[in-house]
Amino acid sequence: MKNGYSRFDFYLIQLEELLAKASKEKDPGAYLYANDARTVMFMLEGLAKLYEGIHNPKKFHKIREQAKQLEDALGAIDYYDAFAKEFINNASIPVTITAYFKTQAAEKTALFNKILIEEGWLGKDADRIRKIRKKLSEAAWLKEKQEVKGIENFYHESIESIKVMVLESEKGFTELEEEVHELRRELRWLSIYPKALQGVIQLTDSKTVDARIDRYLTPEIVNSPFNKMPEPGDNTVFLLLEKNNFLALSWMISALGKLKDSGLKFYALTEALEQTESMENATALRIAGELLGSGEHTIDRILLQASDICKDYFEGKFLDYIVHGIKNV
Predict the structure, then answer these.
(1) Which pTM does this prediction carry?
(2) What DSSP string runs through 145-163?
(3) What are the pLDDT tens digits along the chain (329 aa)?
(4) What are phi and psi of 296, to 5 degrees?
(5) Within 13 Å of residue 187, how many CA atoms lie on the same side as its CB?
(6) What domain range includes position 115?
(7) Do residues 269 and 288 make contact, with C-beta atoms less than 8 angstroms apart?
(8) Which DSSP state fits 211?
(9) Residue at which a domain ends, from 111, 138, 165
(10) 55: DSSP letter
């Protein structure tokens, strides 16, 4: 079987290759951003988050923090770069706004380069990956059956934690970042772990039929390559997730993501107007709504939509039954 160490090493090797190529570039941070280093960091962060909940929490918490720092830095670049690219062909958006996003993306890239050196990912004293491997080699790895049972328990605990988050917002969302984005982030981890674990999680069709789930099984979701599990490989014990409930989860992640992106676009444009035109927040919010053709109450509508789809999804209890059980072969 692929033990935990080899799962981490699979992505550490990919990261090493990216860092080696980046080190030869004038702008290593820009190279890593352009070559999707963020996905590799997501996988490492996801593995560390999961194993932190199973055993050796201090070791894995440290690794998770280190991976998250790079992932967050890459995310900050992506935030501004994406809006710069999106707005450049929008005639209604002033060129000063696009220039602001480009400048911010460059500044975030410079900060990322600084982190890479200071944290030992790049440079003559680079030893971060060696230190991570040392921590991994010292971990008390579980035997295969124990580990898969730990993963199953971790899924149940994560789901219960998500349900608590939802209960805290049962009267409707009031914050995009702290509530909608955070809920989506936690739901998304449940769909990231299968890829990160490289085959130990597989899907199964249950005999239970619930017509309410049909709305989530759209062609886009059913046929998405992101919803195909990795090959089983040499694993002999598997955690099974119920296929339709997993697809419903994917639908929720996608739907919340689209709403979140709409809200962030509104907030980003508001920020740019405040910074480039010295506008008060209330004025910037109004102008942002006019430029986007969505109105100044955009966030309120997004929060209402997010509340409605979450209410329907969690009332269906689809997340409660996503974990099917463990299978030995």
Answers:
(1) 0.94
(2) HHHHHHHHHHHHHHHHHHH
(3) 468 999 999 999 999 999 999 999 999 999 999 999 999 999 999 999 999 999 999 999 999 999 999 999 999 999 999 999 999 988 889 999 999 999 999 999 999 999 999 999 999 889 999 999 999 999 999 999 999 999 999 999 999 999 999 999 988 999 999 999 999 999 999 999 999 999 999 999 976 678 899 999 999 999 999 999 999 999 999 999 999 999 999 999 999 999 999 999 999 999 999 999 999 999 999 999 999 887 767 899 999 999 999 999 999 999 999 999 999 98
(4) -75, -10
(5) 29
(6) 4-138
(7) yes
(8) G
(9) 138
(10) S
* Tokens (6 digits) for 207: 């005999």
On whether the CB atoms of residues 231 and 199 are closer than 8 A, the answer is: yes
| Last-in-domain residue among 90, 114, 138 | 138
Q: How many CA atoms lie within 13 A of 221 on its CB side?
A: 20
Beta bridge partners of residue 239, listed in sequence order: 201, 326
Cα 227 to Cα 243: distance, rounded to the nearest angstrom: 9
Residue 247 to residue 213: CA distance in whole angstroms: 9
Residues 6+ apart with CB under 8 A from 291: 92, 93, 269
Following DSSP, what letter does each residue of 57-82 receive, concatenated? Answer: HHHHHHHHHHHHHHHHHHHHHHHHHH
Number of C-beta neighbours around residue 64 at 10 A: 21
Q: Are 253 and 224 in contact (CB under 8 A)?
A: no
Residue 53, both tokens: 């909940």
Residues 6+ positions from 142 with CB-CB distance below 8 Å: 4, 54, 55, 150
Same domain, 294 and 237: yes
Rounded CA separation 318/329 (Å):
27
Long-range Cβ pairs for the range 113-121 (8 Å, 24+): 113/27, 113/28, 113/29, 115/69, 115/70, 115/73, 116/28, 116/29, 116/32, 116/70, 119/66, 119/69, 119/70, 121/19, 121/70
pLDDT at residue 206, rounded to an integer: 75
Instruction: Count up the domains in the chain and report the number.
Output: 2
